[in-house]
Amino acid sequence: MTLWRESLLYSLWLALREAYEQSTARRILYAFGGWCAGQASGSRVVSALSREGNLSANWETSRFCQFLTAVATFPGNLLHRWYEAWAATFEDSFFARLVFELGEGTAIAESWFIMLLWVIPFAYWDNAWSLLAFAFLLVLFHAGAMRRQTFRLDVPDIGFYPAVFFFLMVLAAPLSYRPELSWRFLGYHMAAAVCLLVTVSATRNAADLKRLCAGATFCVAVSSVYGVIQRVQGVKVNIAYVDAKLNPDMPGRVQSYFDNPNTFGEFLVMLLPLTLALAVCSERKRGKAVAAGVFVVGVAALLMTYSRAGWVGFALSVGLMVLLLRPTLIPALIALCVLAIPFLPSAVWTRILTITNFNDTTTSSRFPLYEAALNLIRRDPLRGAGLGSDVVRQYIKDFRLYHGSAPFVHAHNLYLQVAIETGLLGVIAFLASIFATVKRGFRAVRDADGGAAKVITCAAASGLCGITLCGMADYPWHYPRIQVVYWFLFAMTLAGAKVCRAEAE
Question: How far, in Å, are 79, 395, 416, 433 from residue 421 at the CA level?
Answer without folding.
Answer: 38, 10, 9, 17
